Amino acid sequence: MSGGSLDVSKAGNALWLVKVPKYVADKWDNAPGSLDVGKIKVTNTPGKRPDISLHLSEAVLCLEGEKNNEPIPKSFKLDVSHFTSQTMVALSEQRMSYNPDAVVQETDKLAILGKISQKLECRPIGDQVYMDLKKQAIRKAHIPTRQVQKLDKVVQNFKPISDHKHNIEYNEKKKSEGKKARDDKDAVMAMLFKAFEKHQYYNIKDLVTLTKQPVVYLKEILKEVCNYNLKHPHKNMWELKPEYRHYKEQEDNETNK
């Protein structure tokens, strides 16, 4: 087999896909590779479907699991279901170690072990060992994951706080400044005309302070009655449009004199 290719020499093998309970899978995971984990027995009866059963070896039953050392059933019935419109295969992967001295590194090797012909599911035989195992599982399921613990003194690490410092500062600032509410448009225009009687030019910040109006709302009104200067010496400042200037006629009269 060359590197990077798929070995299909065993693709014609017929394989069984067997689903086993988790406690059986845990036992098998802890078993050495050379250990006999069990045997499958097939009993043929004329006119009936084959009777298939799985019997775990005593060596596997004696293995200690990582999470559960309770006795588990030894014998299981295997219920068979055939594949009709689905194709499944079993793949094996052999990971190659990295060799820094090699000119060409070997790639991981993939091989098809065979085609799944039947799907089988383990069904434990209801003996006393199985019934005891189920009782233990039900008992564990009723143990609450969270428990109430009585504390004799305050634990500072978990002491709750009513609010965080930055939230308190923000709320106090917001409360002191107050929320700007829109006044009637005519009232705002009156405030603007009064302000422009004192000065010819204003920046937006000063007009917001004088009128106490939201910036967006104030700019809508300013665009109707004012011009925005883009050139020096009054760049970025607002000035009344000529038709609204109260000082225009006075300046013309002074010039004519």
List the helices and strands and how they pair.
Blueprint: E1 6-7, E2 14-19, H1 22-29, E3 38-43, E4 51-56, H2 58-61, E5 75-82, E6 89-94, E7 109-124, H3 128-141, H4 165-177, H5 185-196, H6 204-211, H7 215-225, E8 226-228, E9 238-240, H8 248-256
Parallel strand pairs: 1-7, 2-7
Antiparallel strand pairs: 3-4, 4-5, 5-7, 6-7, 8-9
Can you walk me through this structure?
With 257 residues, this protein is an alpha+beta fold. It is built from 8 helices and 9 strands. The protein has helices at 22-29, 58-61, 128-141, 165-177, 185-196, 204-211, 215-225, 248-256; strands at 6-7, 14-19, 38-43, 51-56, 75-82, 89-94, 109-124, 226-228, 238-240. The strands form 2 sheets. Strands 1, 2, 3, 4, 5, 6 and 7 form a 7-stranded mixed β-sheet that branches. A hairpin with a 7-residue loop joins strand 3 and strand 4 (51-56).
